[in-house]
Design a protein that fits this description.
The structure is a single chain. The chain has a domain of 84 residues: Lipocalin. By secondary structure, the protein is mostly beta strands. It is built from no helices and 17 strands. 0% of the residues lie in helices and 54% in strands.
Amino acid sequence: MPDRDELVVASAGDGTVRFFDASSLMPLGSIALGDDADNVRVDPRTGQVVVGYGSGALAVLDPVRREIVRTIKLGAHPEGFQIDGAGRKAFVNVPDAHTIAVLDLDTGRVLANWRAAHFANFPMALGRDSGMIGMVYRIPARLVALEAASGAADFDLPTCDDADDLSFDDKGIVSM
């Protein structure tokens, strides 16, 4: 599990994931993934770091040994993604493939590719207790909620243009 006093930074510019000591900001190491490394998440169960990158992959990283544990291939570059509370699944927006990929982080298998309802699905949030996935599409600007178990839509509403982030509060209400 990563040390609480450690920062992990992904650079889309050069595709490198860098590890820093949080108190001194001294570099601790790095991993070169390739093009467009972004969207860093920590698996709550294992402490492994998950990063989207390249023309279509997630890298699962060991932050202690600073090495790649596994690579999970996707149909195109991943954008927003979230890891469920148990750390078993990742839900990934893959806008250029027009899908939401559901992944098993332990095996690296793609469990499902749900068809995206609209175009340019970028930000995503996962309601920890509700079993709901929130996402925003840019074309047209829509806020959509899906059931995490099935991918079925709960609602599909108009929203603001060009949303870049999304979250649920502790009451399960979506905010941008």
